[in-house]
Amino acid sequence: MDKLAIVILNWNGEKMLRQYLPSVIQYSRDEATVYVADNASTDNSMELLRTHFPEVKLVILEKNWGFAEGYNKALKQIDAEYYLLLNSDIEVTHHWLTPMIEFLDSHDDVAACQPKLLSIFDKDSFEYAGASGGYLDRFGYPFCRGRIFETVEKDNGQYDYATDILWATGAALMIRATDYWEAGGLDGRFFAHNEEIDLCWRLRIMGRRIVCLPESYVYHVGGGTLPKGNPMKTFLNFRNNLTMLYKCLPDEELKYVMRWRWWLDYLAAWEMLVLKRNIGDFKAVYRARRAFKRWKKDFADDRKKIQQSRAAKQIPEQKGFSLLWQYYAKGRKTFSSLD
């Protein structure tokens, strides 16, 4: 059994692997085994790995399962105490693993953790995908220490302290294997987007902690699979976010939040059309809501099981305010300025 398995899920990522895998190998070889799980790539990824990175172990998947189910399929073939799900577009740093390993070793109640995520294009700024740890507002909108909606902060050390969070970024997520499978793993039906938030929220409902450890930091490119403004990305984000809310919200909040989201989602769609003139994203929101309505019944058993696993009624990292109101009405665009 490996102590720590770093698992990079790859699909046609030859360029990213060539550029960023050397730093992972250089700064991880003494503390982890590095795996690349391939989602049936059609480029030269496998040839590159076999020729230039023979120390990397390969997990070959027979088709493109997407991010969520791809990881589930790959991790079933890897025996390790801890998994570290790592994007192929991550540049790691010296001793990046040590703080996370030591923290999990000494805190049995912590299921998962993440490093601080900085932008590879501006190394003094946080990176959108996870910054310094993630939260949700009352209506299911995700935000981070260092990033709220499109506002990304400079990293001036303002969040350089370990803290409990609701979700850790899937770009660099270290998690106990036992907790991963106890919670049911990533929801493969999501394909991609919101799947790590969904997993971490389920773990928090079970009473397990998620932590950001900024002493460890990495640099992320971001947006490599589906860039912002791609209608498929918009579709997956809206559909999966609604599904996650249905699964995880307690009974007393579900109807209230879903009523509000009906209005807020369609308001967002028309804002995309009228102000941004983006008809693709406009249609994607409508398709996402229809798709959620069609498959909602398929998650009824999941919801029942998740609610039965609830260890506490309230989760502090799921905030009670509206992020839209804080951001647009009150002008609070940084994490430290929020109520």
What is the 3D shape?
globular
Mean pLDDT: 96
| Helix fraction bin | 25-40%
- How many helices does DSSP assign? 11
Q: Detail the poorly predicted runs.
A: none
Radius of gyration: 19 Å
Main sheet characteristics: 9 strands, mixed
Structural class: alpha/beta
Distance between the termini: 45 Å
Percentage of residues in strands: 15-25%
* Total beta-strand segments: 13
**SSE order, as H and E?**
EHEHEHEEHEEEEEEEHHEHHHHH
Would you mind describing this structure in some detail?
- The chain is of the alpha/beta class and 339 residues long.
- Helices cover 40% and strands 21% of the residues.
- It has helices spanning 14-28, 45-52, 66-75, 98-106, 177-182, 195-205, 231-248, 251-274, 279-295, 300-308, 323-329; strands at 2-10, 33-39, 57-61, 80-86, 90-91, 110-119, 134-136, 142-144, 147-148, 151-152, 163-165, 172-176, 209-220.
- Strands 1, 2, 3, 4, 5, 6, 11, 12 and 13 form a nine-stranded mixed beta sheet that branches. Strands 7-8 form a two-stranded antiparallel sheet. Strands 9-10 form a two-stranded antiparallel sheet.
- The model has no long low-confidence stretch (mean pLDDT 96).
Based on the model shown, name its key terms:
about 350 residues; alpha/beta; 9-stranded mixed β-sheet; 11 helices; globular
Give the gist of this structure.
The chain is built from eleven helices and 13 strands.
Secondary-structure map:
Blueprint: E1 2-10, H1 14-28, E2 33-39, H2 45-52, E3 57-61, H3 66-75, E4 80-86, E5 90-91, H4 98-106, E6 110-119, E7 134-136, E8 142-144, E9 147-148, E10 151-152, E11 163-165, E12 172-176, H5 177-182, H6 195-205, E13 209-220, H7 231-248, H8 251-274, H9 279-295, H10 300-308, H11 323-329
Parallel strand pairs: 1-2, 1-4, 2-3, 6-13
Antiparallel strand pairs: 4-12, 5-13, 6-12, 7-8, 9-10, 11-13
Helix pairs in contact: 1-2, 6-7, 7-8, 7-9, 8-9
